[in-house]
Amino acid sequence: MVVKPDTATPLDGLVYRLVVAVDVEGYSKLDALDQALAQTRLGEVLDTAADHAGLDRAQWYRQERGDGELAVLPADTDTAWVVAHFTEGIAGALRDLRAAGTPMRLRLAMHGGTLTAGRFGLVGQAPIVTCRLLDSRVARRALADGDGDLALVISGRLYEDVVLTRFHALDPTRFRPTRFSVKGAGYSGYVCAGEPRGDAPRTPGDVRRGGLRRVG
Predict the structure, then answer these.
(1) How many CA atoms lie within 13 A of 105 on its CB side?
(2) What DSSP line would sit under the chain, residue for residue?
(3) Does the predicted model carry a pTM greater than 0.85?
(4) Beta-bridge mates of residue 17
(5) CATH number for the domain that contains residue 83
(6) Which of 34, 89, 102, 204 could bond 30 through an S-S bridge, CB–CB 3.0 to 4.6 Å?
(7) Cα 97-100-106 angle, rounded to 5 deg
(8) What is the pLDDT of residues 4-19, one digit of tens each?
């Protein structure tokens, strides 16, 4: 199912965007009722995380996947802000679920690249790379072996172009490099150990463009 709200920027022609994908661990092992509950909780987690980061999900081009979501953010999105604060919001929402006795574990992948809209969904390398990162054994193992309920994996390009800037208190030392192969193609990425931000104070100025609204 493709969710393309009227407020979302149309994907006309080949565009360069940030792509974000999320997946629920162990979804296929659940019965139908628990799958429905998992979908509801996932939607609530994503909405809560977006609200935490001041993001407006109504402006995203979203493709729902049953056990997850593939989203394309607007062209003027502050990518470092999303990596830092949207991830932080998801981690916080998952902690709240665990405290409430309804834990959920997620894999989260991000990549920036070219894509467009096709008849049956997104077309281009950006969604392919993002989904490869999300579904990789590396990401699955990072979540299975981690102490928290979230595993973040980003592309090598996103690490070099965004994380290394250290904007919005992103901490490159929290990311470890990884390589893997899928269907004969090699991919490089970085897995985040814990949350991607350091202890630096929040960057002043909470008004951002590109699907971000005023917060605070």
Answers:
(1) 15
(2) -EE--TTSPP--SSEEEEEEEEEETTGGGS-HHHHHHHHHHHHHHHHHHHHHHTB-GGGSEEEE-SSEEEEE--TT--HHHIIIIIHHHHHHHHHHHHHTT----EEEEEEEEEEEEETTEEESHHHHHHHHHHHSHHHHHHHHHSSSSEEEEEEHHHHHHTGGGTGGGB-GGGEEEEEEEETTEEEEEEEESS-SB-SSPPPS----SSSB----
(3) yes
(4) 113
(5) 3.30.70.1230
(6) 34
(7) 20
(8) 544 455 677 899 999 9
Quote the domain boundaries for residue 103: 2-150
Say what the pLDDT of residue 8 is: 53
When mean pLDDT is compared across 45-49, 125-129, 192-196, the lowest value belongs to 192-196
- Is the residue at 52 inside a domain? yes
8 A C-beta contact, residue 118 and residue 28: no
Lookup result for tokens 């802000």: 81
pLDDT in tens, 73-90: 999 999 999 999 999 999
What is the average pLDDT value for the chain, to the nearest integer? 88
| Tally of structural domains, the chain | 1
Amino acid at 210: G
Q: Find the mean pLDDT for residues 151-171.
A: 97
Q: Which of 61, 59, 17, 62 is nearest to 42 (CA)?
A: 62
**57 belongs to a structural domain:** yes
